[in-house]
Amino acid sequence: MFLVVVSHLPLAQAGPSGAIFTTIVNGTIVNANTQYTSKCAVYLDGGPGANGNTGAAGLPAGFYYFQVTDPSGKTLLNTDPVSNRQFLVSTSGVITAYTGTGGPLHPTGIDLPQSAAGAITVGLANIDCPADFLDTSNNGGEYKAWATPASSFVGDPTLVDNPCGPDCYHGFQRSQSKTDNFKVKASSATFCLAVTKQVESANGSITPGVAWPMTLTDPSGTSTPYATNSAGTLSICGLAPGSYTITESTLIGVVFYVAVGLTFDGTAVSPPDSTYTFTWAAGDPAPTVVFVNTSGVG
After folding, report:
1. Are 40 and 32 in contact (CB under 8 A)?
2. What HEC string does 43-77 produce?
3. Is position 227 within any domain?
């Protein structure tokens, strides 16, 4: 007689469904055609990609931590605490808020393809970029982005790094995490363009121009759409030297506005079509443009 013993062992907990991917600040390009121009230009997105339907590949709702490592995962490249690298996923399966605390803010952008669901993108580097995150040791300029549910994190999120044993990388268990590899070109001079939109009411008070459409035309002539965030601001980083034109939408509903742009040196300009053109070279200060509605109506 043969005795057959059947043991009921607990199954390994399944990782989160859905997907993460890297993109530019407005979410319109997935993996930036394989290579980004700067670490500062890489943003994290979740759920459906630029051409996906809302809900497709959506992440389970809840809080997540993220990190950047070398391709093997052995070397952590972020320099801020884990708690500062946190975002919130809504029931629609998209990232809707950056909720990090304890370090320099990570910039966010409106995810234009999924804006109806309130989706945003989150900068993998914080505002101290390019100091954070560190350069990869990979000769091909390759990095790995990670996201894991906060409930699956192993360690103390107030720390930068958390050694955590086999198949666990800096507090991120591989089986519970989503990853995406990306490449960044060799370091070169880049800058961030800061844009602010303000709306003047009839009584003269100023409020932020939220989700205001903007278009940036780069030195190659390529125009890319963006939108301001809930504070009426927009930061576009990883831009190379050259001539640029930033254009704001002058049509909100059915009302046209006359705009004034203020450059980084305080000089006021009145572009006839709500545009501002400038040329940036290595060593120049980072330009800031503020579009303010006046009482005039076009």
Report:
1. no
2. EEEECCCCCCCCCCCCCCCEEEEEEEECCCCCCEC
3. yes
Structure tokens at 208: 């932020």
In a domain, 52, yes or no: yes
Which of 155, 184, 213 terminates a domain? The answer is: 184
Domain membership flag for residue 7: no
The verdict on 31 and 176 lying in the same domain is yes
The range of the structural domain enclosing residue 174 comes to 20-184
Instruction: Give how many domains the chain has, as a whole number.
Output: 2
Give yes or no for residue 176 having a pLDDT over 90: yes
* Long-range Cβ pairs for the range 157-161 (8 Å, 24+): 157/65, 157/81, 157/82, 157/83, 157/86, 158/81, 158/82, 158/83, 158/102, 159/81, 159/82, 160/76, 160/78, 160/79, 160/80, 160/81, 160/82, 161/76
Round to whole Å and give the CA distance between 170 and 163.
5
Distance CA 251, CA 20 (A): 34
**Whether residues 25 and 98 fall in one domain:** yes
Q: What are the tens digits of pLDDT across the range 107-134?
A: 999 999 989 999 999 999 998 887 788 9
How far does CA 234 lie from the centroid of its chain?
11
How is the chain split among helix, strand and coil, in percent rounded to 5?
A: 5, 40, 55
Q: Are residues 238 and 137 in the same domain?
A: no
Pick from 184, 144, 219: which is nearest to 36 by CA? 184
Distance, first Cα to last Cα, the chain? 95
- Each residue of 235-271: pLDDT tens digit? 998 888 888 999 888 755 434 445 555 555 555 555 5
Kindly state whether residue 91 falls inside one of the protein's structural domains.
yes
Q: Bigger pLDDT: 10 or 55?
A: 55
